[in-house]
TrEMBL record:
Protein name, entry field: Alpha/beta hydrolase
GO cellular component, one term: chloroplast
GO molecular function list: chlorophyllase activity
PANTHER family: ALPHA/BETA-HYDROLASES SUPERFAMILY PROTEIN, ALPHA_BETA-HYDROLASES SUPERFAMILY PROTEIN
GO biological process, one term: chlorophyll metabolic process
Lineage: Eukaryota, Haptista, Haptophyta, Pavlovophyceae, Pavlovales
Signal peptide extent: none
InterPro entries in alphabetical order: AB_hydrolase_fold
Length: 140
């Protein structure tokens, strides 16, 4: 049962910066649950095929990958299978997979946006090459 108190409690368990869990975030998380098809969708998620596994998915990606991981992520911990996989991929394929660990929880981009940007911007600068703009000939 999705209630404000349940959602708030779960969010507080995955955010390291508790002040980031405000009424607006709780409402945003709860909003999809109000959809008439929400129960059916949730059931399909729980009973459906799991989909492509992370290792296979990463092998399909043709651009550099930056995984920014929250050191205090309790849902997908660093020492869990997915965390270990990305750490291994970063060691094996440093030119195509990078992993950065920051002091955050499960949602580092919202938990500590400044720390995520501090990792993301240099990564993008290193991997994005200026391309000519085809419409007016400018470089972007």
């Amino acid at each position: 049962y999705a209630s404000e108190s349940t959602v708030r409690s779960i969010l507080l368990s995955v955010y390291t910066r508790k002040e980031r869990v405000d009424d607006e975030l709780v409402r945003a998380i709860l909003a999809p649950a109000a959809d008439p098809a929400a129960a059916e969708v949730f059931g399909a998620i729980l009973t459906g095929e799991p989909g492509v596994q992370p290792r296979e998915l990463v092998s399909r990606v043709r651009v550099p990958i930056l995984a920014i991981w929250g050191e205090r992520d309790t849902f997908t911990p660093l020492d869990g299978p997915t965390g270990r996989l990305f750490a291994q991929l970063a060691r094996e394929r440093p030119a195509s997979v990078a992993m950065r660990v920051i002091d955050a929880g499960h949602v580092p981009h919202d938990d500590d946006p400044a720390a995520v940007l501090a990792e993301l911007l240099p990564f993008l600068a290193a991997h994005l090459k200026p391309q000519p703009c085809k419409t007016v000939g400018l470089r972007v």
